[in-house]
Structure formats: C-alpha cells, structure tokens
Design a protein that fits this description.
The structure holds 2 protein chains of 2 kinds.
Chain A: E1 21-22, E2 24-26, E3 29-31, E4 38-41, E5 48-52, H1 57-73, H2 80-96, H3 98-109, H4 113-134, E6 148-149, E7 152-156, H5 162-175, E8 179-183, H6 190-201, E9 209-211, H7 216-223, E10 230-234, H8 237-247, E11 253-257, E12 263-266, H9 272-284, E13 296-300, H10 304-315, H11 336-351, E14 355-358, E15 373-376, H12 383-386, E16 393-399, H13 402-410, E17 417-421, H14 425-434, E18 439-442, E19 461-462, H15 467-472, E20 475-476, H16 485-504
Parallel strand pairs in A: 1-5, 7-8, 7-10, 8-9, 10-11, 12-13, 12-17, 13-16, 15-16, 17-18
Antiparallel strand pairs in A: 2-3, 4-5, 6-20, 11-19, 14-15
Helix pairs in contact in A: 2-4, 3-4, 3-6, 4-5, 9-10
Chain B: H1 18-24, H2 30-38, H3 45-55, H4 62-74, E1 76-79, H5 87-98, E2 112-116, H6 120-127, E3 137-142, H7 152-164, E4 169-173, H8 176-180, H9 184-197, E5 207-211, H10 214-217, H11 220-232, E6 237-239, H12 251-268, E7 273-275, H13 283-296, E8 309-311, H14 314-327
Parallel strand pairs in B: 1-2, 1-8, 2-3, 3-4, 4-5, 5-6, 6-7
Classes of the chains: A alpha/beta, B alpha/beta.
Amino acid sequence: MTFLDYAPAPESTAILNLRESYGLFIDGEFSDGHGESFHTISPATEQEIARIASADVSDVDRAVAAARRAYSRTWSKLSGADRGKYLFRIARLVQERARELAVAESLDNGKPIRESRDVDVPLVAAWFFYYAGWADKLDYAGLGPNPRSLGVAAQVIPWNFPLLMLAWKIAPALAAGNTVVIKPAETTPLTALIFAEILQQADLPAGVVNIITGAGDTGSLLVNHPDVNKVAFTGSTAVGRAIARSTAGSGKKLTLELGGKAANIVFDDAPMDQAIEGIVNGIFFNQGHVCCAGSRLLVQENVKDEVVDRLKARLSTLRLGDPLDKNTDIGAINSRAQLDRIRELSDIGEQEGAERWSADCEIPKNGFWFAPTIFTNVSTSHRIAREEVFGPVLSVLSFRTPAEAISKANNTPYGLSAGIWSSNGSRVLGVADRLRAGVVWANTFNQFDPASPFGGYKESGYGREGGRHGLAAYLESTGWDSPGGRAASAIERIETSSSKKAARK
Amino acid sequence: MTIHQAAPLVAVPLAPAERAIQLIGGDLTEKSLRLHLEGLTGVDAVGLEARAASLGTRSIKTTSKAWALDRIIELIDLTTLEGSDTPGKVQSLVAKAMIPDPSDATTPRVAAVCVYGDMVPYAVEALGSAGGEAGIHVAAVATAFPSGRASLAVKIADTRDAVRSGADEIDMVIDRGAFLSGRYGLVFDQIVAVKEACRREDGSSAHLKVILETGELTTYDNVRRASWLAILAGGDFIKTSTGKVSPAATLPVTLLMLQVVNDWYRLTGERIGVKPAGGIRTSKDAIKYLVTVAETVGEEWLQPHLFRFGASSLLNDVLLQRQKLHSGHYSGPDYVTVD
C-alpha cells in the first residue's frame, strides 16, 4: 500500500430515510401515479434505490390544476415579503438537511460526494436565499414598476445537477409569484422527492410546487398542457427545439438552456499550474456532464506539448470510484445510455484520426464508468470537436494568434460558455469581448453564483437564469396605472413569438 | 528620471552557481538572471488558493492516517528558536527528539532538531551516537536569522561557526529587502556564498535550506521568483518562513513552492526539498501538507531529505492523535511530555 491509495472514507448512507416507493407530489401530498412506475438506480452499482411513480395525462392534468388553484387562490395573493419568508424557510431547511441531500444526490446521480457536498447543495441553498431576497423587490427587477407573475410554470430539468437545476427553476418562479409543476429527469428523481418533503416541512401552501416524475412523455405532456403560462426547460438541444416548435404561438413564455461545446482558451502567458487545474475542472467536473463544460481546449501552439504533458500527469492523480467516498474525484456516468453515447463518440474520434489517451484507472466491475480521456491531434472538422459529448472527454486543438483562437472558439453552433487563461488582463478583456458565449470565465472555469445570470447564444438556448435577469423569465411588465396591462402584454407576447417563428424560417 | 542605482541592468557578473550557469548560460549576469525571473508566468492567486483548499478536503482515515502520523513525526525539524534558549532546554529538546513518546517504543524519531548556531555544540553532544548523517540531524539557523540584516561577512562567519560546531544543516534567510527592491543578483550571490561556507574541511557539505520568509514577500509571484532564485543559487531546500513573521507557512504558499520544485524536476531531473515552517500545529493541518506533497510532486518527496515540517508544538498533537488511534480514546496534554 502506498499513501496515495487512501484508505476508504465513505460517507454513510445511514442519514438517508428513503421510502421504498415514491408517488407524485401534487397539491401538497404524495399520491399514486397512473403511468407505469419505474426504478431509479445507483449508476455506481446498478442497484435499485426506490420505485418511482410515473405521471400520465390525468396526473399531469391534476398537477396543473393544483398549481392553477394555488396560483389564483393563495400564491398570487400573498405579498412579496410573505413569499420571501417561505423561500428563506426552504433555504434554511436545505442547509439543515444538506448532508442527507448530498448523500442522496451522489447515490442517485453518481457524482462524487465531494461535489454534491461542496458545490451542488450549498448552491441550492444559496439560490433560494438569493431569490428569497428578491421576492419583495420585484419593482427593481428591471421590468418597470409593479411587474406581474405569469401564472403556472411548467419546468423540465436534466439529470446532471438534479437538485441544483430544480433550485434554479423553482426559486425565481416562486419569488416572482408563479406556481410550479416540475418534472425531474427520469434517472435522477430522488432529491426532488426529498425536496418535496422539505416543502411539507416548510408548510408551503398546497399546490404551489408540484413535483411529477416520469420519462420524456410526461415532460412532453407537461410543457404542452394548455393551462401553463410559462415553460422552462434545461436539457438537450434536440428536445429544446421540439419544445420551441410545440409551444410557438401558444402564448407560453419560453426559456431554454441547452447544450454547449465550450472553448477553453489557454494563452502562452497563462498562470500554468492554475490553468491545468482549470482545464481539469472545466471538463472533468461532474464527469463532464455539464452543459457549459470546457470540452474544447484551445492551446497556443508554443505551449501545447507542455500543457498536454502536464494535463496527463494531473489526470493520472484523479481518483475514479465510489461516488460516496469522500476522496473520489470522478464518479459514475449517470446512465448506460449516456455511457453508450460517450463510447460511441470517442470511438468515432479515434476513427477520424484523433489520438486518444485515457488515465490509467481501475474501473469498478458494476456500474457505468468512463476514464478521463483526452484527444490530441483533433481538427475542427472532427465530430468530437463539434458535438456535445457530455462526458469526461476533452478535445485538444491549437491556435497561433488571438484572432485564430477567437474564430475557432466561435466556430460552433453552440454558445453557452467559454474560458480564457492569460496573465495579461487587457488580452483577457479583449478576447472576452469577441467571444459569442453567454458566460466567459477568465482564469477560472465552472464557477456559479446565484447573482450571476447564466444562459446561451445560438443553439445553446435563450433566456437567462440567475441574477436579476433570471426574474425576467417569470415576470411580465405592466404599466403602473394600466388596467388592461395583462391582456395587452398577452397580445404582445403572441406577436413576439410569431415574429420569432417567422424569423427562424 | 532617476536610474535605479541598486539594480543596474548592466552585465555585472555574478558568483558562479552550477545550476544557474546550466540553465541560463555561462554569461550569468544580473540582467540575465532578472530576465529569467521576470519571464516566469504569473500565479493566479484565486486558483492557487482554491486548489490548496480542495487538497485540504481529502479525508485521511484508519490505515492511511496511521501511516501519515508516523511519517509526519519522521519529517519534523523539532525546533526551539528563542532568545531564552539554554543548553538545558536544548538537551531536553534533543531527548524529546530521540524518544518522542516514552509510553510507546514504536514511535519513530524526528528528522532533526533546529536551534540557533550557538546551541549547536549542546545539541550535538546531547545526541551523541544518535546524531550524525544517518541519525537525527542538527539544523542551525544562520545568516543573522531571522532578519538577515547583517553584512555578508557576518553571515558567512555565522554559517561557518555553525558548520564547524557540527551542524548537519544550515537554515539561512535571504535578504528580503534586496529581493523586494529588485536586487536579485545580490540575493543570489549571498546564497552562493553561504552555500560555499557550508563546506566542511573534509570536502563534504552541510545541507542548505533557504528561507524565503514568504510572509514578507507578500505576493505569490514573488514567492515563485524567490523559489527559483534560491534553487538556481544552489539551495538544497526551500523553506517558507522563520516562524517569526506572520503569516508563516500556509498551504497555498507551500503548494506553490512544490510546483516550482516540480517544474525544476521536470526540467533537470533533480529533486529539491521543501520545508514549510511556522504555524503548523495540528495533525489535521500536517496531514493536509502530506496530501499536497503526494498529489503535487509525488510520494517520493515524503522523505526527510526532501520534505520537512519546521515545528515545535506539532509533535505533541501528533503523539496524542497516535495514542488515540491505538487506544481508541483521547488522553490529554499530560499524557505527552513537554520539552
């Protein structure tokens, strides 16, 4: 044994108080679903964790009706300050139950406990605290005086940050005065269901938040339900496109947060040791299951070999294994389907002539795993340089001048995020200005804060989440003295969405 | 415009130092040295501190913890550097170094005792056969420690005196004033001269640790430059602090110095030692340093000739943790000895 084979330090699952099966959380209570139930499994062991209900069309109706009732009878009548109190209460309960939520998240999603404990759950609490503060200050949200809530929000979230994405969706919606029906991803419903218990603990009025589980069909029923006013979706570009198509002209306000293929640009004057850490954090954080992951590394040609060498040395120290072990850096891939896709794209990368290198790590027998991998000799035309892999796979490309770096970075259908590494402040600002990406990180990567808006260009979606800008997705302007404000803005909305449609054609 | 007298960018030849000549070239001058040091890429403070914090979250349990506690003891320079030090105090320190825990014979010995130059004869005598190259070393602080404010002649005499008295290791301080005013050549020359003064009559040499006093250098960029400077001038070890200035050793500073040492190893294949000193008082903190060393430069650095802790109160905390690991319960400060 060597010191670096740290003895196992697993976080105990004794803190969990899981049920054998979970129903749908509608109108403040759990009830059976009428679709075919399914199991959620731990991707690290493939063992079943709990049986999960599936919502069919009648359940979706029920959930939307509950949200509508809660909206018109309770939530829209509360003062902002009172809504804020509930949000503060939820935030504190999340903190109180932080360890439990972190363990559940790592168990169900496969991400290392180090991340769920130090990143996901603290950010969830921060998001609720942040928007709790906004609830009684909506006049300053940038939409003019007295902005109005939209009504019922239908929200569909992905499996990569199950609880954090739930917080990103629910916190601003409630702060702005909307009620919610949310559907967590099929493979990661567990923390959303524990969150439902937290809502009961917080005494949130029944129906304000409804959590329904199921697969893509359930999500489709939800976003296409005629009685929802707002649709918010985070997930793949293909599904996002389908939602945009089906909600067009319906009057539903839509925000989409979709895929990405971010460039992480390393100049030769970068703080090198920190840049290596940033590259690792950019693509191997959460097994690369991050829409804003820095999956394309653009390195200045004169330092490319050095960067690749150092990167390989660093990747060799990453610890892959049990997500619940406190020393694990790389957890399990979330599902077999995702693992298959990562494998397929990596194989294509090799066939297209890129050079593949994977860290030498022991892969556990059960579960879904993929060793941290980098591809060198990648050209901009290779599929691994174009398509979102959504896994621990990094493509390394080089550039010679800042102009070339910018043009390569922007040469993607996506535009969610980008990174710049340089000790030269004016270069950082100059390049950042010309990158078409929603978030540009300088000398860091994958940093999130509730006060900072997040969202994409082009096929990465539209609308912003987080910050003051995130409220705009859940509010509409009204004139202070305009009794017809609501109807007028509804017409305006329909006009806007049809003109968008026209513009796309 | 006034020309900075102290740091002329003209070709003033510097004292020869093998490493610097190999890396920078035979025409070693103030200018070439300066170009090299100022050409190093910057350090991003936020990123460095985040990396150190993340290394600090490693959870070292059971067998790994047992190994770590023993190794920490083996890496300690047990230190007393007080104006009130006496031969008796030094003898007591040496006794503790040889038998850290009288209740447990399996407890390893520390790497060295670290004392002021005039205390070296007492330390050597007290160690007897337990000392020497293969045993517990005697390290002496020298060169007008801790401020370094003395002429080069005094610094050399200070060093020679300690070596002659039997010191195995010399912990010198750099001239921080000269460094901060950009007179890198002066700092360089002094390190080279002290290294020369470490030579014994039989041709062997006392190991030289170069104290950067990072708390006075204030920026990470300076720490990085000073680390390179000390290595180029021939230091066997680079050491963070005297322990007399706050902040003393911190995890980010130590991580940064380890990264420089790693760069040097990648460049030349030569391994340089690192010694964080001052402010490391608990086993928990010391384990974070072990993790940082192992995950940055590798486990082979966790040996006394490549890594040391400069500490005084750390040892007793490690002993308490060690007793707890073996007995299953905590004892108290009266179950370890005061030195």
